[in-house]
Predict the structure.
Amino acid sequence: MRDIVIYMNPRDFGHKTADCISAYWSMGRAPKFFSSDNKIWIAAKGCIQGYVECEFFDPEDLGGETLEWNGDTWVPLVQDIPCKPFRGFRYKWW
């Protein structure tokens, strides 16, 4: 099982982690070892903020709706984990 972390701007972060919203994330390349059973950790403002449960993952829909999650599954961290901004996804952020 391999979780990933994605980095987004603060405006997207607020919208994509809101309650009662289905959120999508487009990717230029699909993570090889990721599946819909994994968590999607979300980073913004220089920190890992928390995670969501992946509802749907389509590795063939690159540039489209590759990842989908529901904002109701958002679990914020008690203490943010610092990380440098990056594009795309990572399996490790430390």
